[in-house]
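Please describe our next protein:
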Amino acid sequence: MARPGRSATARRARRKGVEGGGEEGGAERWLVTYADMLTLLLVLFIVLFSISVVNTSKFIALRSSLSSAFGSGPTGVLSGGNALNENSAEQNGADQLMPGVPVTPPQADKAANDSKPKNSDVPPADYTAKVDAEVQDYKHIEAAINSALKRGGMSGAVQFAIDRRGLIITVVTNALVFPGNSANLLREGQHILSVIAPPLLHSPHNIEVDGHTNQEKVSTAPYPSGWELSSARASAVVRYLITAGIAQSRLSAVGYSDQRPLYPASDPRSITLNRRVEIVVLSSLPAAAGDALQAAGADN
């Protein structure tokens, strides 16, 4: 009888263990169910948020498209009814979309956009008076420089032109201004600049100095190329103008090498006249006035 008793006890112990394991497995399944519920709630809130903001213009386009596709009968949408047209384009209400927000049909959007002025419709500003005043300012600078050059016996040492950038004062960098392959400003070059600087001293315009070389395929040693040589010559002129009293903040130097010639390489004048320094008295007018400025300069 002892053996059967031990068997019954063992069976009860095993049954208890199985029941305990079942309770543990049930708890795990409950956690999975809870997690699924939270995921569904999150999806629900995302959907609610996404449909809470409606693109009214697209809704109106959809409504118009469905109305034209299914007709305009008196009953339902599928039979051509006007259920979608209850929020008519003429009304300000949008109760079925977003209360308090007016519905603007696509046609109204297009009309509003068409009523806005386009860049091509905006009349250009009249720069005539300002252009004339600036050209006269340039002419005063040119007259003062020419008068000083004539007194110093250097007439024709400088050339003048007006383009979109402003007044161009061209100094041909012959052997009297810079030695060959050098950016050392010679005495004659300093003399020319001493005549150019005073009329520019009290001018309100900024000044850009551009260095240019000719197209001859010769060595530029000790400079690696014409870029460095032209930049060094422009910088030398800027340094001299600073010593003449012109503020550094008004000055800049640029080297163009042989990329902006006045004459093609086939022209005999290119050897001497393309090798130059240009002192540009920059225009203070907007860029839109560039053509008018150049035309006015050509007329004067």
